Amino acid sequence: MSADETNGRTERYLPDETAVREALQGGGRADVARIVGAYPQSPLAWAELADIADSEGRVTDTYASATVAVDRAREVLRESGWQPGDAVLWSHEPNRAYLRALDAKRRSANVLGLAAEAGAAADELAAADPDAQMRIHSEFTPTQVINVEEVQAMLAERMAAQVAEAEAAIAAADAAGPTPYAEQPAYSEPVAPPAPVGAAYAAASDVPPMVAPEADQAVPAPVPASWAFDGAPAPSYTPGYGEAAAPAAEEESPHDTAEIPDDVDGSTPGPEASAAPADEGEPVSVDENDGGR
Hints:
Blueprint: E1 3-6, E2 9-12, H1 18-26, H2 29-38, H3 43-55, H4 59-78, H5 96-112, H6 115-128, H7 132-139, H8 148-176, H9 199-203, H10 227-230, H11 248-251, H12 271-275
Antiparallel strand pairs: 1-2
Helix pairs in contact: 2-3, 3-4, 3-5, 4-5, 5-6
């Protein structure tokens, strides 16, 4: 132990507890209580026990273990001349057991409603190192007491339990034997669906209309595009068997097709010439006053 003068304040240091630290690093959470029993005067052992209780939510155990850790640290510090208000800085690692115990005591005292003791622990912590509380919350958590070997043991135990559970399920399935298959029904010919009921039959019977589907409608033939401009052609009819044929006179042309003799000039007069009167003289006017003369 030594004392240094820094900014007018005396710094005190806790010694390194090598045996306790190695025992904690080599053991697990369940071994901390045994280590405390082996080193009851160790502030580090009691501080570790307080942190474990705090992580498990055991407030009274946290308060008790932290109080013992603080008392053990004070006893060691007094041997070097420590007085309340002297600096015990976080930067010196062995001092952290004392500072962690003060913070754990402060928090558990607040939970238990011990306001006076919580305030005293907070003041002592701030006097030892004003940055200690912040450093504890940022650099240290109670889970740091769990070493790698303990984590590996926990994982191995969990995996062994899962393997045992799977093997038990397989053994139970083997003991039960194969699962019997359900008896399949005998094969039967497929039944044809009922014929559709026509609308006329449904109208004359008691069949509900919804059961009688409408007859399939014929699909109309495609229509030429020219019909849209020229219109559809007139339908042509072919006389059926036993029907009288149209009169021959109706099929003939309404004009006289007899040949007309050629004129003098050798031309053939058209239908207008044959229909004109024979006398092409001047028309006779009829005067009603002269009696038709």
